[in-house]
Every structure is written in structure tokens, then in C-alpha cells.
Design goal:
By secondary structure, the protein is of the alpha+beta class. It has three domains: 149 residues, 2-Layer Sandwich (Beta-Lactamase); 102 residues, Orthogonal Bundle (Helix Hairpins); 157 residues, Histidine kinase-like ATPase, C-terminal domain (Heat Shock Protein 90, 2-Layer Sandwich). Helices cover 50% and strands 20% of the residues. It is built from eleven helices and 14 strands. A five-stranded antiparallel beta sheet has the order 4-3-7-6-5, covered by helices on one side. It has a five-stranded mixed beta sheet with strand order 9-11-12-14-13, with helices on one face. A two-stranded antiparallel sheet has the order 1-2. Strand 3 and strand 4 form a beta hairpin. Helix 6 runs parallel beside helix 10. The chain is rod-shaped. The two termini are 60 Å apart.
Length: 470
Amino acid sequence: MQSSLRTHLTYWLIGPLLLLVVAGSFVSYRIALDAATKAYDSALLDPVLAIASHLRRTGSRLELDLPSIAIEALRIDTEDRVYYQVLGPDGELIAGTPRLPAPPERLAPEEHVFYDARLEGERVRIAARAVKVEPGIAIVQVAETLVKRDKLVLELLFASTVPQLLIAFAAVALFWLGIGQGLRPLDRLREEIAARSPRDLRPVSEQDKPQEVRSLVSALNRLLSRLNAAIESQQRFIANAAHQLRTPLAGLKTHAELARRQPSTSELSSLLAMIAGETQRTSHLVNQLLTLARAEPGEAASGQPVNLHEIISRDLRDWVQRALGKNIDLGFELEDAWTLGEPLLLRELVANLLDNALAYTQAGGSVTVRTGVRDGESVLEVEDNGPGIPEAEREKVFERFYRIAATGGEGCGLGLSIVSEIAERHSGRIDLSLPSGGRGTLIRVVFPRLAAQAAHIVLPVSSRTVPTSR
């Protein structure tokens, strides 16, 4: 899964920040170690000097003139174990622990040194001093384990590292919030584009955008401009081609009808009838292409109040006559259903739904048209008891030029595609299902409802008596 830009930027900031924390902790550790070493080395040298000051020569022997109780006092420590050793000029043991490691280097008189060693498996710190005695040099050493030192180092490290970590976590939180605020222009740009209709190809304003975003907006506007030009070119081509085809087709149809009225053989009459029928279907296709050109991407649907009841009533008698000609029972259950839209396109939507239903319903079948308000929405339904649409095909029938095999009919597969385009342009949706009778097709188109009171302000409703074929 792709991470967000905010997360990506935060990761890039956290990495260097963690490196700085680690580097800071290492520096703090070295400082704490040096501080602890200096402090405890100074304290460790005191018993060395005290022992060295009590070396006495008695005759030919070198002795430590220090009571045992004083020696034990020097060795008392609540946390560490302390060892001492005194070596004579010839390296002989005068007093103390015999196994104490020797200094790493030869010491000059009155010189001291500190060094690390291991004693009985433990790490120890040793202070050694060369003391001048006749006739040579004695070595006094005091060693202690590192418990206090390690404890002090950890305390100092903890005291310095915890604030760094807290600052780092606070910085990450501030980074996250800061990056979020910095990316707000991108969020606003996304919301602005997401709120647009798919047909709204106007340029995006660059005035209130940050400098870093303007190049993106500029590239997006150039793309929208090219896309808009391509769509307009396509629309002009479809409209011009359909318009240029409609005139000769109308003439061809007229000439075919005139020829059919002249005396002719049965074969010629049949041929002329076929030409007239094909011309009629081609003219219907041209009109559908013109409708698609109007319904495809462009400006959003206008906000004129439209009553679906009135739209259907205008052409009702023509549809009844066509239904009677095919021996189909066409019925209407019409109630007021107001919405905002373009009357011409909504009229084409109704025409294509009815044309589709009548084309695929067998003789003796029935088609019912309903309008009304349900669940706060304006609804148009066209129900037939024809062969129906298989469930697997219901999504495909809204594709252009798609026809279900072996269903008959004379359509070219554009009717429901036009219905889908017009419904989308009016912020509507289409539901395709099986009627309650279990046979045929029920197509329901749902539009945002316009309250009747609001519609009356702009366009008064006229009462009309609706004739039906039932």
C-alpha cells in the first residue's frame, strides 16, 4: 500500500532526527563517562597517598606503618570492593593483595597513573603511585570495582537522554502537524476538484495556491484545456455528422414514400417498404446521436423546474397510438414529480425508455409508466412484461451499442446509454430490476426532488386529464 506524502515526509524527518538523538546520546555518554572517571579517580588517589605516607624502613625492611583498623577504614565502601597492594624496590610484596595487576608502564618517582584491569573476573580501576624509598622505589596501588562508576554514568546518561527523547517525540508531533498544515493547500485542491461535476472542465484558479502547487495546477489546467478541446471537437463532429446525415435521410424517406404510392410490382413495393423502414431506423439513430452530443460532457444541467408528469403528458397520445399499433397495453400512473433539469433532455430520456420498452415487448404485452415522489425523491418508472434482461447483462446494457443477443427488437444499443447519460447529468441514478410479477423489466430513474412549493414559485402546475390505452 502506498504511503501518503505526509507520512513519507515525516519518515524523512524522523530518520535524521533519530541520528541526531543517537549522536547526542553518544556524546552524553562520553561526557558522563569522563566526568565519572575524573571524580572517582580523584577519590581513588586519596588512599594511595595515605598509604604512601605511612611507608617506613625498619632496619633493612620496608614496612607499612599503618594500623589495620586504618587500612580497613580506607577500604570501606558501600557498593564497591576495594583492594590495595604495596610492592618493595625489588618487587616483593610488602602488604595487601598479591594478585593485583601491575601498572602498564614504568613510573618515575612521585608519579601516579590510573588504568583499567580485571581482577578475579571483574573489571577494576587501579590507581598506582611510585614512592621513593631508600634504596629504591616502592609501588603503592589501590583498586576498586566499577559499580559506582557505572551507576553514575547511567544516571548521567539517563538525565541527558530522556530530555532529548522527549524533545524528539515533541518534534515528530510538531512535524506531523506542521506537514499537515503545509499540505492543506493540496487537500483544498483535492476537495475542489472532487466537488466538481465530471463535465466541469473549467480551469482551476491559481491565485490562492502556494508557489509549489501552482506548477501542478498549471499542468492540470493545461490538461483540462486539451481535454475540453477534444470533447468539444468530438461533440461538434457528432453533431455535424448527424445533422448532415439527417437532411439526406429525410429526403430519401420522402422519396421512398412517394415511390410506394405509385403503381408497382409486389417485389418493388416490398423493396420500397424495406428502404423506408431502414431509412426510418437510420433517422432514429441519427437523432439518438444528436441527443448523445447534447447529453455528453459540457455544462451541467440547467436549474429549470420540471414536472415529470407534464413531460410525459406532452407526447402521451403519440405513445398510445404507437402502442395500439403493436397491440401493447400502455398504461400511465402519473403523479406530480418535480425536479431541476432540462426539459428537452428529460423528454428524450422518457422517449428512449418508452421506445425501448415498446420495442422489446411482444404483441399482447403491457407497459406501465409511473411518476411520483418516494422517500423524498422524484421517481420515474417504466415497467414491461417483455423478455426481460438477465441479471448478468444489467450493467452492460447501459454501454453504447451494446445489445443482448437473441432478444429481437430493432434498436442499435444507444437507448439506455442515452438514458444513463441524461440521468447522470441531472444527478440522478438508475435502478434496473425484475417487476413484482416475475417477468419483464422494471427501470426506475430517481432524481433529486424539488419541493412543489418551490416549483410553484417559478412554474405553476396545470391540471391535465391523462388519457391511457387501458
